[in-house]
Amino acid sequence: MAGQLSGQPIIILDKDKTRTQGKEALGFNITAAKAIADAVRTTLGPKGMDKMLVNPVGDMVITNDGATILQEMDIKHPAAKMMVEIARTQEDKAGDGTTSAVVLAGELLNKAKTLVEQNVHPTSITRGYSLASVKALEILEDMAIDASDDVLENVARTALTGKSADLALDPLVQLCVKTAQSIKDGGRVNVKENINIIHQRGGSIKDTKFVHGVVIDKARAHKNMPKKVENARIAVLDTGIEVEKTQITSKVQITSPELLKEARLEETKLVDEKVEALLKSGANVIFTEKGIDDIGMHCLAKRGVFAVRRCKDEEIKKIVKATGARVVSVLDGVEEEDLGRADIVEERGVGNYKMVYIEGCENPKAVSILIYSGAEHVADEIERALDDALRVVGDVIEDGKIVAGGGAPEVELAIKLRKYATTLSGREQLAVMAYADALEEIPKSIAENAGLDAIDTLVDLRNMHSKGISTAGLNVFTGKAEDMLKLGVIEPLRVKTQIIKSATDAASMIMRIDDILMAKETGMMDVNPEHTADYYDGIQAPPIEED
Ligand code: ADP
Ligand code: MG
User: Fold this and answer.
1) SS3 (DSSP) at 102
2) Which residue lies with its CA nearest to atom 12 of ligand 1?
3) Is 0.85 topped by the overall pTM?
4) SS3 string of 207-260?
5) 340 phi, psi to nearest 5 deg
6) Ligand 1: residues within 6 Å at CB?
7) Distance CA 339, CA 285 (A)
8) Between these two residues, 167 and 528, which has the higher pLDDT value?
9) Annotated active-site positions, please?
């Protein structure tokens, strides 16, 4: 029987694939995931440091934001990529807490590795972790405090502390609260959809301001056009206002100066008629994605129309959303109902720093934040910090629940999970204990990054919690364990629950893998030469912008 089945060895795997199995596979994955967690750990908390990331062409990003660091790191290892995914999920669902989620996942895996070395099977660990996370979510819900609008500033301050936004903390805190509140709509705060963040070169971070409307980083097309139009009726076009070029190649022979003049007049007349038809709709402001030539500008300026040409696609989208305009492709096809409305359209600024403000839009939820900064990478980092702060304020407006920050919830969870573990038996108990230890990595890292002793801090915190002060966290500025609620260090409940969910999911997924099959990396030389970007429809070289 055996003889019949034996014979040639069967090759199931491509020789170019490498295979790693069992504990070795788990070890590989955990090491990679841990390396990722270690890379972002030093940025955690108000005293965390920033990272400078430089890409192959020399562009630089300086950031403290977990999700951005991981995105810029260009990570190759598959398990490490899962950690990047956690940061992205955390960012999507809660807007903040990305570093904490990655640090927690890394530590959950680290603790799991020790358990596996003690011969606890990975499935027992994942079961234990899953029990621990369900319990942790319950405890967090119990710990949560109902919040009203007066805590919003502190929520924003906690998110902004320790970032470059520290340069103008108070004005930025107020700005975030005001902006988030202004877009509240039926109990929801949609930061991504409604808030436009624009960078204005020059000035200082302190000048960063709120604009009730949309700001477009462009100047009006011609200086003879009005600088300001009140009660604006806005036409948005994806066609140019210019002398039309003939479709076929044709030659017009001009033999005298009179004929030349006549030809010019004829061209002007054609454009003029089109502008006339367009303005019949009642439009007094025009935004177009395409060009406006000299004749077009002349025709518009003499009728007192405000026009902006060569708007980017995303600018057009913002204008459409804010003003209720409809994009039209033919000049004489614009009807009154295609027009958008705003109280004021105005060009402001001097020299090269002119921008067009569209204020009092039909959609009152369209608002902008104008970041003033001398350096683009500073503005970028402020934008990321503001985005976090706007999202956490939004979370609290939406859910009305907060918890203390500064490591307080993590210490409290650890204590309660250890108690809960005693109700479980065997291996799951070990896993829940490990989960509790992993949570304490958050206050430990905040302390370490502030130059404090992690163990001393943890002992202080545990002491206060055992005395019943469940909101005791680390005041990084004094180095002491203090009541975070009194200090105003508070965070949305949603950030903390999402950290638990994202970190547990990722750690469990990585732990369930016991076999890695990796294909050999193919260099660009192996790619079919036809499969280049140019080969695909829709991916074309960007058009050259004429002025
Ligand atoms: P994340 O990406 O996880 O939000 P951060 O670098 O923003 O990382 O750090 C967040 C942690 O820092 C949270 O645990 C938060 O409670 C804590 N934190 C924020 N402000 C303070 C403060 N003033 N004192 C102590 N801890 C703080
Ligand atoms: Mg944060």
Assistant:
1) helix
2) 45
3) no
4) HCEEECEEEECCCCCCCCCCCEEEEEEEEEECCCECCCCCCCCCCCCCCCHHHH
5) -95, 165
6) 43-46, 48, 66, 96-100, 158, 161-162, 405-407, 442, 446, 473-476, 489, 491
7) 9
8) 167
9) 65, 98-99, 388
